[in-house]
Amino acid sequence: MSSSLCQTFNSNSRELTYSIASKKFDREKKQYIFIIEIKGEIRFIRTAEEISKDKNILFNMNANDVYDIGFTRGCESILNEKVALLSAKKAAEGLR
């Protein structure tokens, strides 16, 4: 992250609205599910991919939560790519 972006995320002058209440692995979806709290009350469920696309949520979370979501999203992307490469390799071997 650029230094100005880090300063924005770490700024104490803004009120943080969203926080991660919990994170669990959903075996059916094969990805992590986050339960997000809005100011300690309302909760909703989103995947790391869904949250990473919502700039409003990201901007209104603390830096550690944003990092956790980004890290999770990155790991899931790498695993999905590996699965796709292995599937393509098996399909290519089947054509021989």
Please tell me about this protein's structure.
It contains 4 helices and 3 strands. The chain has one domain (3-94). The longest helix has 32 residues, at 63-94. The mean pLDDT is 88. The chain is elongated, with a radius of gyration of 17 Å. Helix content is 52%, strand content 24%. With 96 residues, it is an alpha+beta fold.
What's the helix and strand layout?
Elements lengths: L2 H8 L7 E9 L4 E8 L3 E6 H5 L2 H5 L3 H32 L2
Antiparallel strand pairs: 1-2, 2-3
Quick overview of this protein structure:
This protein has four helices and three strands; from the N terminus they run αβββααα. The chain has 96 residues and is an alpha+beta fold.
Tell me the number of structural domains.
Answer: 1
Estimate what percentage of residues fall within beta strands.
Answer: 15-25%
Q: What is the average of the pLDDT values?
A: 88
* Number of DSSP-assigned strands: 3
Instruction: Measure the end-to-end span.
Output: 46 Å
Helical content (DSSP H or I, runs of 4+):
40-55%
Output the helix-strand order.
Answer: HEEEHHH
* Poorly predicted parts: none
- Biggest sheet layout: 3 strands, antiparallel
Structural class assignment: alpha+beta
Indicate the radius of gyration in whole angstroms.
17 Å
Spatial ordering of strands, largest sheet: 1-2-3
Shape: elongated
Work out the helix count: 4
List keywords for this structure.
single chain; 4 helices; 3-stranded antiparallel β-sheet; alpha+beta; 96 residues; 24% strand
